[in-house]
Structures are given as C-alpha cells and as structure tokens.
Amino acid sequence: MTVTAANTNSQSVSEIYAEALRSKNFVELKLASGMTVPDRLKDLADVQELIKIRALPAEFAERLDPYVREKFLELCDTVKQRPND
Predict the structure, then answer these.
(1) Using one digit for the tens of pLDDT, what is the confidence trace for 21-46?
(2) What is the count of structural domains for the chain?
C-alpha cells in the first residue's frame, strides 16, 4: 500500500504512518519489496518518507530483519544528507 492523502479517508497520513510503525513488519515488507521487485521502488520511497516524517533513528534498524537492515540504514543516511527534501 502506498500511503497518500487521497487514500486515507478520515485518517491523516501521519496517523496511518504512526499505526504502521507499531509493527516493524510494515517497514520490513516495504523494504524487502523495494529491494527485490524492480517495479516497486515506490516502497523504498515510502520507507524514506517514514524516516523523515517520524524521525526514525538509525537505531530502528536493530529491530528489523537482517536482510533489510543495510537498506534501511542507507535510506537513513540519504535522509540525513538531505533533510529538507
């Protein structure tokens, strides 16, 4: 699922992201999908937005499956280098 204001009904995008963060599985699934399916790069962008909007620290990677940790940290570094994008 791509989270946009258009598909949130009465919930704000921030509320949906907050719900998603309650489950690390959401982030893991988005990362794994973006890493393995060539036409799912939007999933990586979604995780990058989560990192920005929720100010997820690099330490969050410790909670993630080892398969996706490096990609999460890479996205964290990108956000850190370009915080205002």
Answers:
(1) 667 889 999 999 999 999 999 999 99
(2) 1
Single pTM value for the model: 0.73
High-pLDDT (> 90) share of the chain, %: 60
Instruction: Tell me the C-alpha distance between 39 and 82, whole Å.
Output: 24
Q: Which two tokens stand for residue 70?
A: 């490096």
Write 49-56 long-range contacts (CB < 8 A, 24+).
49/3, 49/17, 50/17, 50/20, 50/21, 51/75, 51/76, 51/79, 52/79, 52/83, 53/13, 53/14, 53/17, 54/17, 54/18, 54/21, 56/21
Q: Which domain holds residue 72?
A: 24-81
